[in-house]
Design goal:
The chain is of the alpha+beta class. The protein is about 35% helix and about 25% strand. The strands form four sheets. Strands 5, 6, 7, 8, 9 and 12 form a six-stranded mixed β-sheet that branches. A two-stranded antiparallel sheet has the order 1-2. Keywords: Metal-binding, Zinc, Zinc-finger.
Length: about 300
């Protein structure tokens, strides 16, 4: 697994700011843009401004009018406590952690082959496939060794199974709408934080899906295919420079010692998952309990 480190002092200082405080994390989460869950509606609002279904805590509406209009169809799916809902809730929280986004951006550079062709960012989007995994591995193994069943209500954490590219034509409609809005913003010459936009900036878009493994061990998407949890972001130029320098990672083995290897997609994904797992105090809020899936932020 890889831990991204920068040697350039100016870049390192910028990198250190990526772990938000609880207040910053909540502010970032509330500022995320959300599409109205009533499909005929095209309105987009900040997460803090939308009306949320009080039962499932997933469906979100720009107004009470849309919420009432959507109920006839939504009540068929509305419920509490499904595994995919918990996965997507944690995935949405991940969008409020810049360091998580950084790993996805680094991965996207390789997945989309942006070092060879920057225009690939306009032809593909990124699908981040996630599931939940047991947070306390030692306790989980101990139960299995003692002949007990796994604790179905034990704490779990967000786990990224795969990060794949998807042709823009096959991207979810909600992500396409978010991407269109981002492109309009680019025309103003400023990004969301009023930061000036350069001519070479790359717009990368990605969405999270919840997956489960079937009997043959293959991932099957069971939530998020609509692109409800998604983002369109500018790829920092320093990220391109970092990956262009052919960065190395040190793999440590008790038997083989230290080995220096190239940073690749597998190591970036493992590093992202390790970052989440090492957050024992749940500062990033990427842990949860199946019985409390409906609790918010």
């Amino acid at each position: 697994m890889v831990n991204i480190q920068f040697t350039d002092p100016s870049i390192r200082e910028e990198h250190q700011k990526l772990m938000p405080s609880p207040e910053e994390r909540k502010a970032l989460l509330n500022s995320l843009t959300v599409h109205c869950s009533f499909l005929p509606c095209t309105k987009v609002k900040a997460r803090a401004e939308v009306k949320m279904c009080s039962r499932c805590k997933q469906a979100r509406y720009c107004s009470q009018t849309c919420q009432k209009a959507a109920w006839k169809n939504h009540k068929k799916d509305c419920g509490e406590g499904t595994a995919s809902q918990l996965t997507l809730k944690l995935a949405e929280r991940a969008l409020a952690v810049p360091k998580i986004t950084e790993y996805i951006q680094m991965h996207a550079i390789l997945t989309l082959k942006l070092l060879e062709d920057r225009t690939n960012a306009a032809r593909y989007v990124i699908n981040v496939k996630c599931r939940t995994a047991t947070a306390d591995l030692m306790a989980h193994v101990s139960r299995l060794v003692s002949g007990k069943e796994s604790d179905s209500n034990a704490q779990v954490l967000l786990h990224v199974d795969a990060i794949e590219r998807v042709p823009i034509e096959e991207a979810p409609e909600q992500l396409k709408r978010k991407l269109a809005g981002a492109k309009e913003l680019l025309k103003t010459g400023y990004w969301e934080d009023r930061q000036p936009i350069g001519e070479d900036n790359i717009l990368v878009s990605f969405f999270f899906t919840s997956v489960r493994q079937d009997d043959e061990g293959n991932d099957q998407v069971d939530g998020g295919a609509d692109g409800a949890i998604s983002s369109a972001c500018l790829l920092p130029e320093h990220a391109m420079r970092f990956m262009a320098d052919n960065p190395k990672s040190t793999l440590r083995s008790a038997m083989l010692g230290d080995m220096e290897v190239d940073v690749d997609e597998d190591q970036l994904r493992d590093g992202l998952n390790n970052l989440i797992r090492m957050d024992k105090t749940n500062q990033m809020r990427l842990r949860g309990y199946p019985s409390k899936v409906a609790s918010d932020s």
